Amino acid sequence: KWDVGGDDFKVELVEGDKNITMSFDSAWAPPIQAYEKLEKLGFKVRAYYYEPGMGFCGIFEDGFDDYYELVGDSSQVAETIPSHLDEMFAIVENMQEMEAEMAEEENE
């Protein structure tokens, strides 16, 4: 739906390094076709993504999309997703905060 880029597009380049770090929003899903195109052009792509509203996250690397649905409560998700993906986006922590807010609302 959206091109890679936009107002929130950020690029980090380190002189002498062969890595580029980018951050951007995309609509509905990660831009897998863009990642595949970059790989066809000879780039190595490692892309992390998280969509809290639709409840999924994942890592695209070496042409493979390692996709996880965020099903269940925060403890179940903590057992399901890789720790480095959770640390990057604070997924379990965000879920715990939402669960605490919902419990508080139920008690009122």
Strand content: 15-25%
The total of beta strands comes to 5
Shape: elongated
H and E string: EEHEEEHHH
Uncertain segments of ≥5 residues (pLDDT<50)?
Answer: none
Q: Termini separation (Å)?
A: 41 Å
Strand order of the largest sheet: 3-4-5
- Report the major sheet: 3 strands, antiparallel
Percent helix among the residues?
A: 25-40%
Structural class: alpha+beta
As a whole number of angstroms, the C-alpha radius of gyration is: 16 Å
Question: Count of helical segments?
Answer: 4
The average pLDDT value, as a whole number, equals 85
Detail the topology: elements first, then pairings.
Elements: E1 10-13, E2 20-23, H1 32-40, E3 46-51, E4 56-61, E5 64-69, H2 74-80, H3 83-89, H4 91-107
Helix pairs in contact: 2-4
Description:
- With 108 residues, this protein is of the alpha+beta class.
- Helix content is 37%, strand content 24%.
- The strands form 2 sheets. Strands 3-4-5 form a 3-stranded antiparallel β-sheet, with no helix packed on it. It has a two-stranded antiparallel sheet with strand order 1-2.
- A hairpin with a 4-residue loop joins strand 3 (46-51) and strand 4.
Q: What labels describe this entry?
A:
3-stranded antiparallel β-sheet; two-stranded antiparallel ribbon; alpha+beta; 108 residues; elongated
